[in-house]
Amino acid sequence: MLAKALAALFLVLVLATAQAEVFKCPQADGTVTYTDKGCDGRGKRLDIAQPVTIQPPSSYMEETRAMVEIAEKSQERKAAWRRYRTSGGI
Questions:
Q1: CA-CA distances (angstroms) from residue 68 to 16, 47, 62, 81, 85?
Q2: Core-most of 23, 61, 66, 83, by most CB within 10 Å?
Q3: Residues 45 and 22: beta-carbon distance below 8 Å
Q4: Where residue 19 falls among pLDDT bands split at 50, 70, 90?
Q5: Cα separation of 23 and 12, whole Å?
Q6: CB 23 within 8 A of CB 48
Q7: Cα 3 to Cα 65: distance, rounded to the nearest angstrom
Q8: Are strands 32-35 and 22-26 parallel, antiparallel or unpaired?
Q9: Three-class SS of residue 58?
Q10: Cα 36 from chain centre
Q11: What is the structure's pLDDT at 5?
């Protein structure tokens, strides 16, 4: 489960750096539409600030890897204990 959470965090960080053009397109009825396609000369391109990407310190990554290893070993121990109990060991 922790590995899934780390994978999700990684995806969020990667996707946060994705770039796309955004256009603000006023419509005839006064509403505004935002699109990535352009507005046929009616709208303007929005200047969106570049997102800041944060790199966790390497010590954090090492600690996270250690926590994942501990969790995996704990799961292995629990599975071994269940096998022992169901095999008639206790």
A1: 24, 41, 10, 20, 26
A2: 23
A3: yes
A4: low
A5: 24
A6: no
A7: 9
A8: antiparallel
A9: helix
A10: 22
A11: 67
DSSP string, 4-56: HHHHHHHHHHHHHT----EEEEE-TTS-EEEESS--TTSSEEE-PPPPPP-PP
Structure tokens at 29: 């009825």
pTM (predicted TM-score)? 0.34
The confidence score (pLDDT) of residue 72 equals 92
Output the CA–CA distances (angstroms, integers) from residue 40 to 25, 29, 45, in the order listed. Answer: 9, 16, 12
Query: 4-42 burial, b if ≥16 CB within 10 A, otherwise e?
Result: eeeeeeeeeeeeeeeeeeebebeeeeeeeeeeeeebeee
Confidence of residue 89 (pLDDT cuts 50, 70, 90): low
